[in-house]
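Structure ticket #2291
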Amino acid sequence: MKFSAYKFKFYINANHAIYLGGVLGDNHPHTWEIILDTIKIRDDFVQFDMIEKKVDNYFSVFQDADINKIEPFTTINPTLENITEHFKNTISSILWENGWLLSVIEVSETPSRSYIIDMSDDADKIKEQIISSEDNPVQKQAKEIAKRLLSVK
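Resolution: structure written out below.
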């Protein structure tokens, strides 16, 4: 294996209502399943449950809540697509701060309906930036793994 990858699954029980044609629909519940494909970019030992706890802490805001009442969804239509995009941005930041990359996020509002955002191309660009930029603590630890990741394809 040329890099360490983990798949994490999280579940949130939350309600939402979406606007269709300018009309707010009925508020209804879902058990949201969020699947994260991640790449560990640091070469040191990191307990993966530490990452789980950080991400779970973020998701706790949504647990048993009405998503329409949580920023930014007080002004953004809380569609599956918009929720996934928001989660992608926030989770990417949480992971990056801890030496990980998010490569794919999949959010399901039902067992038969998912929305997927694949950031593999973005991950490749980030890995290239890590290799070419000045060393800092995260970059120094990630440099060798990023080189290996670029050779994977």
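Closing remark: The first strand starts at residue 4 and ends at 16.
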